[in-house]
Amino acid sequence: MRLTRRFGFRQLRTRLAVLYAGLFAVAMLCVAGLLYGVVAQNSKAQVRRELIANGTVFDRLWDQQTSQLRGAAGLLARDFGFRAAVATNDRNTIESALANLRQRVGLSTAFIIDINGHVTGLPDLREAREASALAMRLDEGVAAGVAPLGGQAHKIVAAPIMAPALTGWVVFAAGLDQHEMRGLERLSAIPLRAAVYQRRQDRSWVGAGHGSRTSDPAVSRFIEANWHRGQPAEIEQPGGLTIALAKPLPIVPGAPPAVLLLQYPMRAALGPYRALEIAIGVIGIVGLLLVVAATWRMARSITLPISLLDAAADKLADGQLASVPVTSQDELGRLAATFNRMSADIMEREQRITQLAFNDLLTGLPNRANFNQHLDHHLRLIERRGGQVALLCMDLDNFKALNDTLGHPTGDQLLRRIAARLGEDLGDCFVARLGGDEFVLVKPFGGEAGAIDVRKHA
Fold first, then answer.
1. What is the pLDDT of residues 90-110, one digit of tens each?
2. Paired residues of 157 in beta bridges
3. How far is residue 108's CA from residue 201's CA, in Å, rounded to a whole number?
4. What is the C-alpha separation between 207 and 222, in angstroms, rounded?
5. Measured between alpha carbons, how far is residue 369 from residues 304, 374, 379, 397, 429 in Å?
6. Per-residue pLDDT tens for 400-444?
7. Fewest 10 Å CB contacts: which of 51, 133, 154, 285?
8. Angle between helices 399-406 and 408-425 (to 10 degrees)
9. CB–CB of 16/299 below 8 Å?
10. What does pTM read for this prediction?
11. Which residues contact 251 (CB under 8 A, 6 or more apart)?
């Protein structure tokens, strides 16, 4: 009822169609929401497993690369000619050996640090100063880890040079930049994003290759809260929900903490299900159209008898005889049959009431009310068209004495016979009984002859 008042649905078929279409739409939305929730939960669980698996793969790759670099650095550090060049500070020989090794290993950065912190093989002064600071840390026995070099995070692998005492270290540095991370991403079975982040003194985290610029605050807060847990968690980013895993990386003592952040956007995880979502949407739209069409057809079959009943009820209210066809045996068919009987009974009662209102019960002649209407009608006709009307009144002499001596039944019988006689002899006249033994005759005519004829018959 509220829906009808609010949206103005005046037809039952429209209300039924809207109701069932709305129910179907709600059901489809519930199914789609439930399906999306199940798919999203399964996708999240799968992404978490994939991130953990890829983190394990990265650990193995890290160890494998560290072992390879440590082997290459150790091979160079044990070379007799190279140790002699380091002992004699033969820079040309040292740089030539480092260049050959960089080319063979595929690294961009390789240099020598002697026990006094002097660096050979780094032309950049900033990198040379930061590399010189590594001498004390390498002296503590650390051979591999993440450390800043030239303002960027690098993976450092060092091998001692013994001639026969310790004279320095061969150091390899692999940049943990975006290029290095793209190589790691290609090894993954899922399209994840990988990046290395370093912690600053204010406990914020900045990505390798970002320099001093602040990274995404949401990512920074996520790493700070999860970098020791080793379990995937969710990040709400402008691009949508992302599942991420922060893995701590080994660092050179004194270097800021570093983590590897693996991220997988949920929209990418849900990508394979886009076709299913589209199919559900198409099925929902087609189903909705079918429901609307079927409901409209069904509602029409239901409401057509009701519409016929409504129209018939209007006619009946106007005093006309009305009926509706009975086309079924169900509730609507029985309702139509009951309406037809009710309509017939009402018209019969109307006729009976009219007869009682305008006819005399004893004689069947028109009564005083009917006479007044009839006379008024002819008087208006005379005013408009002209002509004359004869009005004759008659009564029975000594009728009261007849009733008193012979009884009322005899008097009633006499009145009925007089009424029948008047109706037979004066069939073209209007004959009415005013009451008791009083009768009146009305005869319209155009001249004297008409009035004489009436008097002759009377």
1. 888 888 888 887 777 777 788
2. 144, 172
3. 29
4. 13
5. 44, 9, 16, 24, 17
6. 888 888 888 888 888 888 888 887 777 678 888 888 888 888 888
7. 285
8. 140
9. yes
10. 0.56
11. 145, 146, 147, 257, 258
